[in-house]
Amino acid sequence: MSHQCGVGAAIGVAEGKWKAWVIWVLAERPRRFGETRRLVSGISEKVLTQQLRELEADGIVHREVYDELPLRVEYSLTPKGRRLHELLELLDAWGLDHLAERSSPGTAPEAVSVSVSVSDGGGGAPRPDSASAGR
User: Which of 4, 55, 78, 133 has the most CB atoms lying inside 10 A of its own CB?
Assistant: First the structure.
């Protein structure tokens, strides 16, 4: 698919139910396939394989095969993938602000503050319940 604008191209790389979760999980550190699958709860082995291949083809994920027995393969974010993760963190912050505003109809948008963590502690995708009333 050809995109005519930067936003479309960026969304095209990260679109889908699982890619943002996979990027989020790999942002903390390189991970093996099984660990990634456990952290992205609900994803099937087939779909994770497909998502990792697509992210690798787009230059977001690096696949490292270690020449040892048993064979070890790790996935990590490339510099391009780290940049995309930074954008996803901004999108996460915006989403948390949005959720906080929707749950507090009388609160002015500028009065809402959220706390965004670079890492979710290995728990998978960012959780929308991590918004707080102040820093």
Answer: 55
